[in-house]
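Repro case for the chain-ordering regression, as requested:
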Amino acid sequence: MAVDTSLSERKLIILKAIIQNYLETGEPVGSRTLSKYTELNLSSATIRNEMADLEDLGYIFQPHTSAGRIPSDQGYRLYVDMLMEEKEQEITQRENAMLEKADKVEKVLQQAAKVLASNTNYATMVSAPINSRNTLKFIQLSQVDEEQIVAVIVLGGNVIKNKIIEVGETLSNENLLKLNMLLNTTLNGMSIDQITLGLIARLKEQAGIHSEVVEHVLDAVAEIIHVEDDMKIYTSGATNIFKYPELSDKQSAQEIISAFEEKQQLADLVTETLASENSHGIQVYIGHEAPVKTMKDCSVVTATYELGEGMKGTIGIIGPKRMDYEHVMKTLKTLQSELDAIYNKNPKE
Amino acid sequence: MAVDTSLSERKLIILKAIIQNYLETGEPVGSRTLSKYTELNLSSATIRNEMADLEDLGYIFQPHTSAGRIPSDQGYRLYVDMLMEEKEQEITQRENAMLEKADKVEKVLQQAAKVLASNTNYATMVSAPINSRNTLKFIQLSQVDEEQIVAVIVLGGNVIKNKIIEVGETLSNENLLKLNMLLNTTLNGMSIDQITLGLIARLKEQAGIHSEVVEHVLDAVAEIIHVEDDMKIYTSGATNIFKYPELSDKQSAQEIISAFEEKQQLADLVTETLASENSHGIQVYIGHEAPVKTMKDCSVVTATYELGEGMKGTIGIIGPKRMDYEHVMKTLKTLQSELDAIYNKNPKE
DNA sequence: TATTAGCACTCCCTTGTTTTGAGTGCTAAC
DNA sequence: GTTAGCACTCAAAACAAGGGAGTGCTAATA
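-- result from build under test --
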């Protein structure tokens, strides 16, 4: 993934210039423009020669004969890799991300998506961290009325799950107490994926109260714990894609916005990102590289954030291939640390 | 709102034919077409005369000279009013709305929106019922650890609210118990808007435990109860608008889809709908009639559903003016009763 | 008197043609 | 190695012409 050394310094400069110019204008860029744009002081003819080479090497191409050049996916890739290396030594400095503290995780993430979208003018998404490795801090069953019990479960990071359990017959107060004791002493501190069905079965026996109700309630508890909160994803600025002509023809717009509405595809994206994390915690998918076909004409930049204890989530930006990678990557890094700051200031036990 | 009697029977038939034809094709409809389409057996010339009249009266218009006619907002309005009257005597019969029972209100509503969208090919929204007149069924504070208390509140219709309350100093077990007793005995059965700040203040005194912690906790409880769950709105099929050329130019599409993403405008729509409810529980806003400017080129059809105890929510469909009003209204009615069936089968106390 | 046939007219849309201009590749000169 | 010059290409814009759907009006008809 390092910079391809087969390119001369000059070619690199020219390529970079082509890309940057194209990022700004969205138009194919020609040799004349470049000969002014760069500080190389080369004539357009020379540039043309170099461009011909770059085209042969696959970094740029012409949308049609006699048009200027446009960076190819490969060209973008090289460019982004260069950026990555430069950034490496830069100190990440905190910026004003305007993230207000909010007590509900949900709110924070939704707002994060919003801030990101308005900062970048691209479409954004933020996935809630996955709970499976989170640990149970507290569990309680309470009688609401004769036929209803409410179960409340608090996980690390103050994630709360709850559900009403409908019971046929009433559970006596003592039994409820017993059950609560049992649940808390047994499950407390365990991670979600440690709480297996086998464990629940054992609990049923240990409960010592042999009634259908208890079994039913325990089953319900297991369900609450395990029901994958189907990957909550918060999005914002989906309509930003209308700002980029290359994405806003009906067909593409329809597809991309659908993806944002349905969220299933975004979920796939998140899964993929979390699976193949790289050193920076930032990943860039250019065009076809993205794991979702809908994004084949977009670039997707994702960052992973961590709320401690292995609870990871993803922040993502979806925009045109000619996105401002530099700014985007910087903004993502900032947000990453903002989230860190918000959630890791309460030291985890 | 009754049928304008100044229109002859024949004009009405022609207007209806124009509209129905336009609903199907989306193209301006001309006199020739009509002379075949209607069972009136009139020549195109006669039809032309009638159309000229209808145009003078403002029910139809030409997008340009020598084009066919298109219904105006006023024309649609008349048409819809006619439909309403016809439907009046029809028996609403249950259809297969495929709504699965789900225990979380949230899920049900999201699914309702989805079903609706796929049934109609329009963009849809469903607002969660507003809680302010809902009653409190159960409240409980539990100690999670030294510094955290989780508050759980169950409202009618099994709506659950919760929040972690951070406390500086630990609250003793007995005090927590006392507090729970007090809260339950006092607040149980009260509606949200009955629980005023004054009441909370009185509770603080009654608690008899004079400590900052108790005050803080009670304040937090009040906040949880009152924090307007900022009108949750579930949407689906926003991208359906791409199916209608008259709405899918960049400008309009951008605006409409934004409205669906931001949801604020939809919330306004809901508020308006709930405020001015009419006899059928179904309302139709045509073009400029909608309380939101974004929808000026759309028609919005809304229905109000009730979960008992004054908890009302709204179902809405947003599409082109040439939407299939008949089908839409029927579908809405069906869904309305589906929701009724799901939520009012557990008889409310 | 209401309906219809006929006709001239309007104007959008489609299709085809021309022009323009940005950009290229190549070659020959510097 | 670099550059000026030139012929060439091709997309997009500008223009022109024809077709066609639809209209309004008038005069004939039932």
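Ordering looks correct now. The interface with chain A takes residues 103-104, 137-138, 140, 142, 144-145, 148, 150, 152, 154, 158, 160, 162-164, 235-239, 242, 248, 250, 253-254, 257-258, 260-261 of chain B (CB under 8 Å).
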